[in-house]
Amino acid sequence: MSSQVSDGVELMSSYRKDPVRESMTVLPAVFALPLTLLTGKPHAGQRPFRITPTVHLVNAMLSVSSGLALSAGALAWTGWWLLLLLPGWAMTLHGIRNLRMMIFHQCAHRNMWGRRKLDALLGRVLSALLLIQHYDTYSAEHVRDHHALHHMTLRDPTVQAFLLTLRLRPGMTRRQMWRMAMAKTFSPGFHARFFVARICSYCSAATRIERTVFLCSVLTLAALVSWLGLWTFVLVAWLPPGTVFFQMSNVLRLCVKHTFPAAGVTERRGRDYFAGLTNAIFLGEAAPAPGLAWPKRMRAWARWWLRMAFVHFPARYLVLTGDTVCHDFHHRYPMSNNWANYIFAREADFTKGHPGWPPYRHVWGLAAGVNVVFDSLAAADATEYDPERLTAVNRRDLFLAFDD
After folding, report:
1. Which of 38, 57, 67, 127 is the S-S candidate for 91 at Cβ 3.0 to 4.6 Å?
2. Angle at which helices 85-98 and 244-254 pack, to 10 degrees?
3. DSSP letter string, 269-291
4. Is 171 exposed, middle or buried (0-12, 13-18, 19+ CB in 10 A)?
5. Residue 363 forms beta bridges with which residues?
6. Is 229 left (phi over 0), alpha (psi -120 to 50) or beta?
7. d(CA 319, CA 97)
């Protein structure tokens, strides 16, 4: 059984075929796996495949290196070849986001390979390479304030990012929140402060040895780039996806991550409560209905392919990368050793009737997911989420209050 619990959110109380995903099964079988990877949702009865954490890591690194190589080719060949910068940037950003959203995140849970020291080493390397919050600080805050009883309270970095960095407030309309979020997303000043905050968030928590290694590495790299004459490559191929595009993706991801508890909810514990704060975000839309007349069928399929290619695929490839489409499964089972197979792991739990947990919830489409989160903030308790109260719990500077 299923029911609509709010605008766009479907609550699945027992197993049934999803009509949106099942509508796509009219396509040849060769499209089954690509559509599952795109949407984040398998079709009924689809045979699962297994992938390891190491494969995810290698894929992310290959995406970054391939994107940089493609961008280098575009700069070398010039002319119309410069258009190759677009897929080059996209591939680089996709790899960086997977390293941050999936690999670094699992390292923070000591759950990448389940080997504490190795996970921590990889996490520290990634925090330095990506210039993000220092691994030790992020790991402590994420587990203590985001996954425990402080989830979606003022101590949660996600809430602080909404209130401090994006300046969104309870009582705002959905349109006002979209306008504010988009203004930040395309603001040069916002991105400059954001990037400085990333550097500070790493360096302020790094040890003296780590800061020394970091500084020496930067100076050595700058000298090498100058000697080889590669500054154009660094500024054009690496800087946009590593800074502005990365941060734009960060904002959009934040806006779809978790819903706020409704005003008046007093019971703030238990599986029913915590599961209700996270939805799966499936990317795609129902395929055209069968039986349409030929002209309408052609137009409908053309529109569907265009939207899947230019709306839903970019959202999946650049924003909801990796396991973020199934973030609800992670919050139910944060230490699952099957996290690398997130799509089929969630589906298996759903098919079994999610034992011990309330029904799963999902939304189809990135924009619909953002709307659900914005609507939840609009209806949240303005007293509870008063930014003035953050001074009592926030230990970070304004622009250190970003979250992913």
Report:
1. 67
2. 50
3. -SHHHHHTT--EEE---PPPPTT
4. exposed
5. 281
6. left
7. 8
Round to whole Å and give the CA distance between 180 and 167.
8
pLDDT in tens, 92-138: 999 999 999 999 999 999 999 999 999 999 999 999 999 999 999 99
Do residues 103 and 112 make contact, with C-beta atoms less than 8 angstroms apart?
yes
Q: What is the pLDDT of residue 400?
A: 55
User: Cα(371)–Cα(96) distance, rounded to whole angstroms?
Assistant: 26
Residue 181 to residue 175: CA distance in whole angstroms? 10
Rounded Cα distance between 251 and 399, Å, is 13
For the record, the structure tokens of 217 come out as 């590495």
CA atoms within 13 A on the CB side of 97: 30
Helix (H) or strand (E) holding 11: strand 9-12
Long-range contacts at 123-126 (CB < 8 A, ≥ 24 apart): 124/210, 126/99, 126/100
Q: Name the β-bridge partners of 80.
A: none
Gap between the terminal Cα atoms of the chain: 33
**What is the rounded CA–CA span in Å between residue 60 and residue 166?**
28
Provide the token pair at 185: 């997303």
User: What's the pLDDT score for residue 1?
Assistant: 46
Pairing verdict, β 360-364 and 9-12: antiparallel
Q: What is the DSSP string of 231-257?
A: HHHIIIIIHHHHTHHHHHHHHHHHTTT
Identify any residues that bridge with 10 across adjacent strands, giving them in sequence order: 4, 362
What Cα–Cα distance (Å) separates residue 155 from each residue in 22, 161, 170, 255?
Answer: 41, 11, 17, 18
Classify 383 as helix, strand or coil. coil
**Tokens encoding 162:** 């909404």
CA distance 330 to 244: 28
